[in-house]
Write the structure tokens for this entry.
Amino acid sequence: MFKHILVPLDGSKLAETVLLAAASLAKTFKAPVTLLHIIEADAPEQIHHEHHLTGVQEAESYLAHVAARKVFASIKVDWHVHTAAVEKVARSIVDHSADEFQPDLIILCSHGNSGVHDLLFGNIAQQVAAASGRPVLLIKPAEVPTKFKLQQILVPLDNESVHDAVLPYVTGLAKAYKAETHLICVVPTYGTLTGEQAAAGSLMPATTAAYLDMSEEIAQEHFQGHLEEFKKARLSATAEIARGDPAPVIARVAQETAADLIIFGTHGRAGLDAFWNRSVAAGVARRTSVPILLIPIPERPQ
């Protein structure tokens, strides 16, 4: 499933939080890893109270040292330093992904204030996922990195099929790690509607309430089909339909199910689909330390 993994690093210990996950996924899928450092224009001398890599030679030495660590034993690891200083590090990551490395997974530590370390839960990480057309795994930093495990996968889906494109990744990871999967669809209540949905609801409250009830019924039928597919594949899966504000509900269910990974389908559409756009993934990320895998979903033809 994953044939090449790209890991951008800024030289900080916090950014190295991703290394255990990168090594685990690389070993599991027999995928090579490329470590990447982007020289940032006007970069600060320190990041997270640590020395920040600003020179090409020290960056080369650092990445070579990381590549030689025990965690990457038996894994093919290469490294690259982008030597021309850039202002938009996220754009540079996307360009390297498209033109040079062509990874099918980018792993990022979600921390900081600028550059690579500005990939904090939301717009920039979503832009990397969308612009590169590649999955992005976001991992929150930890002072003491813990072993990457994958026993329980949480998958938020809509009540139709817009986000079903993530399911091949779900089943691939579930098979490889022998993990259980929990599907969840959060249908809003009348009181948790926002934006255009709320405006429409205030004009047609009875119609909106009926629509939400119908959405729950559709989700139940939709999920039953998925559960049968998981059963045929001999994979363990459960599902639930919840009502409320999606981000806090998903974060709560992640805690209740002891999820090790949350897999989101992401796209840039707004309007009635703003309920499922980047704000939900960002809202969940702010509420949980569980790693989040963002899978870009192609836009539907208009």
